[in-house]
Design goal:
elongated; Helicase, Ruva Protein, domain 3; 284 residues; binds S-adenosylmethionine; 9 strands; 2 domains; Rossmann fold; 39% helix
């Protein structure tokens, strides 16, 4: 197995590599954690897997053994030869040397034409956690299930409930688009080099709630806008973002039985959707 400290160090030495901080390179060196992630994802020879940032292939190796095929995106040119050499025993592996955020996901899905379904399993580069998750949720693709290793604090924000300090636009967006669940925690000691933060494995299952919203894009922007200044009230955030008078906005807020001075962190997804529709999509 690649994913232990001795083998990882040996590979880094063999190819004269140093972990690149700028690419968020912290390699998993805990075999138990690797096995636990793959078991949670449910090994299945009819399922294809997308992995972002395979690194030196610790998780990739197990994924290749457990699933039909793996498509990986690795931005670091120097790691491509390493992956091709270390994983040469597998013929169900493709690695693309590209920034995942710039890929044409829909087109790349052709690789999986012999798979029943596709999931994502990935120890993410933490500096672009949110853009990666948003790309999967906002661009058209048939993927329904995701297993991400992310920074613990970010995981807590994604699953936060209304009224808690972690609740914000990301929590609302996740609630709108996914069932999100933290599966287990991973200590910073499971990585080489050891990062400053602990991690969690999170599972996202896509869902589609229907609030009868016409302009989805505007609604997603509305969610971001009402949380843009966390210390301000909902009304003040709305005044700042839209050309509406404070009095008018307070009327909209009272119309749905909320206090005019309420803060956005105390609004549920349903209340946010109702407020959005009343302000922007109600028939005159
Ligand atoms: N999967 C490996 C593991 O678990 O040991 C490495 C995980 S490491 C946290 C993140 C990986 O993502 C690194 O290999 C890094 O080079 C890669 N990466 C960083 N930015 C990326 C991007 N925009 N697109 C694709 N890969 C990226």
């Amino acid at each position: 197995m690649i994913g232990n400290i001795k083998k990882t160090q040996a590979i880094l030495d063999k190819y004269q590599l140093k972990a690149k901080k700028g690419f968020g390179q912290n390699f998993l060196i805990d075999e138990n954690i690797l096995k636990k992630i793959v078991n949670e994802a449910g090994p299945d020879k009819e399922t294809g897997v997308i992995e972002i940032g395979p690194g030196i292939g610790a998780l990739t190796e197990l994924l290749l053994e457990s699933f039909r095929k793996v498509l990986a995106y690795e931005i670091d040119r120097n790691l491509i030869a390493v992956l091709q050499e270390e994983l040469k025993a597998f013929n169900n592996f493709k690695v693309i040397n590209q920034d995942f955020l710039k890929t044409d996901l829909k087109q790349d899905m052709n690789y999986f034409d012999d798979c029943k379904r596709v999931i994502v399993v990935s120890n993410l580069p933490y500096y672009i956690t949110t853009p990666i998750i948003l790309k999967f949720l906002e661009e058209e693709n048939p993927i329904e299930e995701f297993y991400f290793m992310i920074q613990k604090e970010v995981g807590e924000r994604l699953v936060a409930k209304k009224g808690t300090k972690d609740y914000g636009s990301l929590s609302v967006l996740m609630d709108y688009r996914t069932d999100a669940r933290i599966l287990f925690q991973v200590s910073r000691n499971s990585f080489l080099p050891r990062p400053q933060v602990d991690s969690v494995i999170i599972r996202l299952n896509k869902k589609k709630l229907n609030f009868g919203i016409n302009n989805e894009f505007a609604f997603l922007k509305f969610i971001r806008n009402i949380f843009s200044q966390k210390r301000k009230t909902l009304a003040n955030n709305l005044v700042r973002a839209y050309r509406l008078s404070k009095e008018r906005i307070q009327e909209y807020i009272k119309e749905i039985d909320l206090n005019e001075n309420i803060r956005s962190e105390n609004l549920s997804l349903e209340q946010i959707a109702t407020l959005y529709k009343n302000i922007f999509e109600a028939p005159n």
